[in-house]
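Query structure, 163 tokens:
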């Protein structure tokens, strides 16, 4: 079925889906800042996303080791921006995620970067490889970000228990 759809339509469709997911993430982030944080909410996204690694069972999505390394490196570098814009604070006896205006711009920048890279690399890699590369990049970005958030959350939680 996918083979019969021209690749430019798949590229456009997947880009629209990613932009919608980014907007949804911004809305979820804004809503989550209104409720106390907990470890489960912080750590579930990387666990849920890890199931996407099953795509690599199929040869269509496999990428070379040097491309894996490059995607991981870019993902970790991008995670630094997310780590810098994700801060927690204590309100009463709870820990909350502090809303950051910079987060919107960082996420918008990452979505723009992804879209431009996808268009630029679309002629070099086939669609499956490109999907695999972007999954690796996204997972390499989300995992360190969420681990840093968990560490920061636990540190504030200990501070609350001492008070």
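Result returned for the query:
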């Amino acid at each position: 079925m996918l083979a019969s759809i021209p690749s430019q339509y798949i590229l456009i469709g997947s880009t629209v889906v990613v932009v919608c997911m980014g907007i949804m993430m911004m809305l979820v982030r804004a809503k989550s800042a209104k409720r106390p944080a907990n470890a489960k909410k912080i750590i579930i996204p990387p666990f849920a996303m890890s199931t996407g690694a099953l795509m690599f069972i199929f040869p269509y999505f496999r990428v070379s080791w040097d491309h894996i390394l490059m995607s991981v490196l870019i993902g970790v570098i991008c995670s630094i921006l997310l780590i810098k814009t994700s801060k927690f604070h204590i309100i009463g006896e709870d820990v909350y995620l502090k809303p950051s205006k910079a987060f919107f711009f960082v996420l918008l920048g990452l979505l723009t970067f992804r879209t431009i890279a996808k268009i630029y690399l679309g002629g070099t890699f086939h669609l499956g490889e490109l999907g695999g590369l972007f999954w690796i990049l996204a997972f390499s970005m989300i995992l360190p970000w969420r681990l840093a958030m968990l560490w920061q959350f636990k540190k504030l939680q200990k501070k609350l228990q001492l008070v």
